[in-house]
Amino acid sequence: MAKRRYGHWHGHQAGESGRNHVMANIVQFENVGLRYGTGPDAGPETLADLSFTLRSGAFYFLTGASGAGKTSLLKLLYLAQRPTRGVIRLFGEDAVVLSRDRLPGFRRRIGVVFQDFRLVPHLSTWDNIALPLRVAGMPEVDIEQPVREMLAWVGLGDRADARPATLSGGEQQRVAIARAVIARPEILVADEPTGNVDPDMAERLLHLFESLNKLGTTVVVATHDFHLLGRIPGAQMMRLDRGRLLDPTGSLRYPPTRPE
Amino acid sequence: MMSRAIKARSSAERRVLDEAGGLRAMTWVMAIMLFLTMLAAALGLATAGAARLLDRQLVGRLTVQVVDGDPVRRDAVAARVLAALRAMPAVATATPVDRAELTRLLQPWLGSDGADPQLPVPAMIDVDLADHDGAAAARVAATVRRLSPIVRVDRHESWMSPVNDVMRSLTFLALALVLLMASATAAVVVLAARAGLQTHHATIAVMHMLGSTDLQVARLFQRRIALDATIGGVGGGVTALLVIAFIGIRLHGLGSELLGGVTLGGVDWVVLALLPVAFVVLATLAARVTIVRALRHIL
């Protein structure tokens, strides 16, 4: 398993397809609600009555207007937040009652591309991308090849020593994506990953996600960009509106359509 | 190969917290704290040693006085006491104090009258015991007192007990200072670790999201603080040892019997040399506990 997850990136774009190999539920939400703050400071529910499942190896777009709760939903997915009610099953386990000690193990199975990249500003491109492998305890000697391949994969082979401040928005975005996927996560969660790049780059990044998805990673991309939705064949869409999934049954629709 | 891998890992970890090269404030704080702590510890060890030495010296010394207005009877009893003392196995030496010496001692108070042979000055005998323990001194004193009612025995131990008390107080003060400094150092480390957490909050959040455990994050801070403490400890420690050695040489040069006892033995030097190590361990543990506790409040 570890070998698969941290394996090298040869032939990523050679048409390998793992998307349909395993189609078990990797994520399951049951009546999940999220409210920020507690007691008298508690606000209204940011997310309410969310019930849906994500199939392993599938590709999902999460759409909705600003403030609809996309980022909050992603935070629940990548375990940065616990829900105030409901059940979240992740990798077959109840993530709501998961002890703090077990969170790192779960988080290593999830790759996250943050909306604001969250690159470590004083680390080079190389070190930012290598960070998940170092966190996972991979020996330094084994880190070099996957990082080199990843740099080439995102087209930043010549920017390995650059600090984030010297990179363009698109380059930073690609570093963030490379960091999120280098450890071959089982789920990739991306929050507006194309928000800071031009359309060409957006399409290229999406192609990176698709390549990863073909290797078997479940991909969840939150985006405003409706032009992207039809670019991934077989992708499904979840639409959020004021903290609720629009489809009351919780089922996911395909093909994606532009919301009214 | 292995050491290169460890070095590479260490270097990578150092980069995560944006460690600038050169000396940091923490290094200076540790150097100053350790310098002061080692001076306090040296004072404590030296006074404890001096008190022990004084104890050993004084407990084995007595002065026997034969007090009588009749010089003939006084001298006869003194001779009997001297003979008895010299016959005791517990007594190493028994030396009568020379009359001329007594006259010299009295001169500041009595002037030339002190030399008057009719003056009822007590006959005195200085006694050094073979065994420097309190029980032997008590036994000798009791035996000598039984020889004649005009015999008085002064144990030097009781004369110098206030000095000894002062020395013991200094020792306890020094110990308290060392503990205070250790507490202050731990407090500084706690503050530094908390400040570090604030400074690196964003990096830590990212590391958590990438699956870092609390101990992994704590290790980064621990390693950094241990490095600061080691550099500061070596600097402060070596300086303190040089100062202590210098003061020791100066005290020795005074030739004072009392101050001459204020010296450090081999074990004392080892204890002093171990203090920097103890401080590094203390700082590292304080950093680890602080970071791990703080991280528990973050999901």
Concise summary:
The complex is a heterodimer of chains A (260) and B (299). With 260 residues, chain A is α/β, with parallel strands linked by helices.
Topology readout:
The complex is a heterodimer of chains A (260) and B (299).
Chain A: H1 2-6, E1 25-35, E2 45-55, E3 59-64, H2 70-77, E4 85-90, E5 93-94, H3 103-107, E6 110-113, H4 125-135, H5 140-153, H6 169-181, E7 187-191, H7 199-214, E8 218-222, H8 226-229, E9 236-241, E10 244-245
Parallel strand pairs in A: 3-8, 3-9, 6-7, 7-8
Antiparallel strand pairs in A: 1-2, 1-4, 4-5, 9-10
Chain B: H1 2-16, H2 25-59, E1 61-66, H3 71-87, E2 91-96, H4 99-110, E3 123-129, H5 134-147, E4 151-155, H6 156-159, H7 161-199, H8 201-209, H9 214-254, H10 257-260, H11 266-295
Antiparallel strand pairs in B: 1-3, 1-4, 2-3
Rg of chain A from C-alpha positions? 18 Å
What is the terminal separation of chain A in angstroms?
43 Å
CATH topology type of the domain at 2-8 and 58-66 and 104-245 in chain A? Rossmann fold
Largest sheet of chain B, in brief, is: 4 strands, antiparallel
| Major sheet: arrangement of strands of chain A | 6-7-8-3-9-10
Query: What is the level-2 CATH architecture name of the domain at 2-8 and 58-66 and 104-245 in chain A?
Result: 3-Layer(aba) Sandwich
Share in β-strands of chain A: 15-25%
Which sequence of SSEs, written as H and E, runs from N to C of chain B? HHEHEHEHEHHHHHH
Mean pLDDT of chain B: 83
Poorly predicted residue ranges of chain B: none
Please give the largest β-sheet of chain A.
6 strands, mixed
Please tell me the total number of domains of chain B: 2
Oligomer: heterodimer
| Uncertain parts of chain A | 1-22
Percent of residues in helices of chain A: 25-40%
Helix run count of chain A = 8
What's the total helix number of chain B?
Answer: 11
Q: Judging from the principal axes of the Cα atoms, what is the shape of chain A?
A: globular
Strand line-up in the sheet with most strands of chain B: 2-3-1-4
